[in-house]
Structures are given as structure tokens and as C-alpha cells.
Amino acid sequence: MRIESRCIRAGYTPGSGEPSVLPIVQSTTFRYTSTADVAALFDLTRTGFFYTRLANPTVDALEKKVAELEGGVGAMATSSGQAALFAAVVTMCRAGDHIVASSTIYGGSFNLLGASLKRLGIDVTFVDQTLPDAELEKAFRPNTRLVMGETLANPALTVLDIERFADLAHRHNVPLLVDNTFATPCLCRPFDFGADLISHSTSKYMDGHAVQLGGMVVDSGRFNWANGLYPEFTEPDPTYHGLVYTEAFGNMAFIVKARVQIMRDYGCTQTAQGAFYTDLGLQTLPLRMAAHSERALAVARFLEGSDAVEHVNYPGLESSPDHALAQKYLPGGCSGVISFVVKGGREGGARFIDSLKMTTLEVHVADIRTCTLHPASSTHRQLSDEQLRECGIEPGLIRLSVGLEHLDDIIEDVAQALAHV
Ligand SMILES: *Cc1c(COP(=O)(O)O)cnc(C)c1O
């Protein structure tokens, strides 16, 4: 099946007389009739549902769908995108390990790696992803165990050269993990370019309607965890009678360990109801991604022609330094998020936002409603203009997430607000 059909059909195939729509299995627990059945589940010699923290039929259907969309061997849903990245990292890394990550990753991921995981003894070096290989090589250490970046970064909108970063990681015998939240598998499939793992915040385009938080870890099944650098996978796990993940599960070792060890112990579970909402969103994802991308490109072109705008950042524009990468990795569109700098600095930015009529002021992106944010008067308001510039944020910077209202309504609203700047 093509991706449009998979978004609708994958993950759940009802038998004769069963519900056509994915059922919400609202049950924390599952009944068994013999101790032998339950023992086999706990020994991991047989699969099945026994407690919703580990697996649930509704969540399982969503996981199977996303694994298929990305071309992976398996996936694990989590309570949020933050939980997905956390679970992915701690499945492979332990205290004393080191990560190389792009400096333009999402702020939440930047804090997770740079502050919270650092506190647990997992170190990180952030790199400028535009540097040549020879410079990037300097970030690697003997204890480096992971390379990480975002296909299309939130909100920097930089495009990761996935092939180059996969080669770089593989030269050091470590995997490349790509956060594919903004692109979604409709616009880019990182596994096709050599990535080994994918994480998602499904709270964005996958849900698409701003109703459900969620995350997903997807395993390509291609990375060799028995290469000598990952004792986590090759040493016996005493909590499963000395089971060795690579021996017991082969190319599913990563995604099985993520579930039976990390999800078991940390409990960052997606709910059945939440999986249902996310699955409902996924069914129209290809239509929405095409429409978001088309509208955003038109809005970006309009902004580029406006006298009230200093600069527009959208990789779909020929003027973007990442345009060539976008043509390679995002040929079907660059999704709906744009950033631009209005004239008049901090005050100009605030005046633009306060003059909008339809577009809403929200700390969210990537859903059906056009929404916007002015970092200098909201998320970063404690910083001076100089401090803002040090973070790469102009005082007049606006983030605009182009929704699915009529294009003319979106442009008319932006135009009338720009007239007040
Ligand atoms: C929003 C976002 C996250 C965090 O996801 P939550 O679901 O909000 O926890 C991670 N990565 C990217 C790229 C995001 O946009």
C-alpha cells in the first residue's frame, strides 16, 4: 500500500463481524486462565497483553501503523514527545555515555539532553549541523554512543543532512536518531537515508488537531547493538533471569528493550483513548501535510514581498540557506511552520501579534488552526535584546504555524496585522 492507504488501513485489520473503527480498549488489565500462560508472558517467551503500562491493543494498533509509515520493524508509543526521546536515549545509554546532538533541536529536547540527562550522568555536546565533517568529528569521544538531530528543526527550521549525519555516526559505530516530528513520514522518511532510530512528538501534525499529547519511538531494526559498544544490550538483564536482548530478539532488540525494561520501569505510557485520537488524526495526515505545506509556501512568499518584514525563514523558499537540503529531503513540501522578523523589533513584533484577528496566539504549532507566537514577548520575555540575539532570536521574530483555513483568509489576516507594524 502507498502511504495514503497505510495511514488509513495499517495497524488494525478487523476480522469478519468486528468493528471497522479501531476499538478503544479501556482496560488496564487482561485476564488469563492459567499460571503457565502468565509465566510465559513474564519470561518474554510469548507476547500478549497483560497490563496497559506495557501494551494495550489500541495503543498497539497505533504503534504498528507508525512503524509501517516510517518503514521500521517496531514502534513504542509514549505519553509525550519528551518521553519518547527520553525513553530512546535511556534504552541505549547509561551514566558515563556521551551524545552528539545538533544545537538547533527543539528547546525541550535541548533541556532534556543538556540539563536533565546530564544530571543522570549522560553528557552531550551540541554541534552546529552546518559544520564540515572534519569539524564535527572533533565532538566525538571514546564514550560517544548516539548522534541526534531533527529532520526539520522546531522552530529553527533547519534541515538535517540525514545521509551525512548517518555516515558520520556509522563511522563511529553509533546510531543516528532523528526527531521527525515536523516532517512526519508523509514528507520525509529518515530510515530511507540511513537513520537508525526515529522519535516523534505525535502532539503536532500526527494528531494534527491539538487534542492529544503523545510521542513515538521507531526502530529501523538495522543497527548492530552487538558491536561491542552497548553492554546494555549484550550483558544479561537480571530482571529477566539473565536474558540478553541481542540474542533473544535479534533485530528487534532495541524496541523490545525499550518496552519491557524502560517502559516497565518509567511508565511513560500512552493511553488507549489517546492512541485512538492520534490514530484518527493519522488517517488524514497525507492530505493535511500537503495542504499545510502548500499554504505555508504561499504565506512565506507573501511575507517575503512585504515592506514590513525584514527576513523570512522557510526552507521551501529559494532564499533559504537550507533550500537545497529541503529539495533533497522534503521534496513534497516543508510543512506549515514559518518564522520571520518584522520591522520595529520587540515592539513591532508585539504590535503584529496584537493586531491579528483570526490567527490565534498560542504556545503550540503544527495543527489545523493558524497560530503564532512572539518569543520576545512570551517564551523569552525575560531576556534583553542582546541576550535574545545570543540565542539566535531577533526581537522582532514571529513564529507562524500555518493552518488549514482558506489561504486568502490567512494572508488577509497577516497583511492587515503587518499594516500595524
Ligand atoms: C513538541 C516537540 C517535542 C516535544 O513533544 P511533546 O509532545 O510536547 O512532549 C519534541 N520534538 C519536537 C521537534 C517538537 O516539536
Strand order of the largest sheet: 1-7-6-5-4-2-3
Helix count from the secondary structure assignment? 17
Task: Give the uncertain stretches in residue-range form.
Answer: none
Q: What kind of sheet is the major sheet?
A: 7 strands, mixed
Integer-rounded radius of gyration: 22 Å
Shape: globular
Helix content: 25-40%
Distinct small-molecule ligands in the complex = pyridoxal-5'-phosphate
- Measured between the Cα atoms of the first and last residue, the distance is 49 Å
Beta-strand content estimate: 5-15%
Helix and strand string, N-terminal first? HHHEHEHEHEHEHEEHHHHHEHEHEEHEH
Structural class: alpha/beta
How many distinct beta strands? 12
Mean of residue pLDDT values:
96
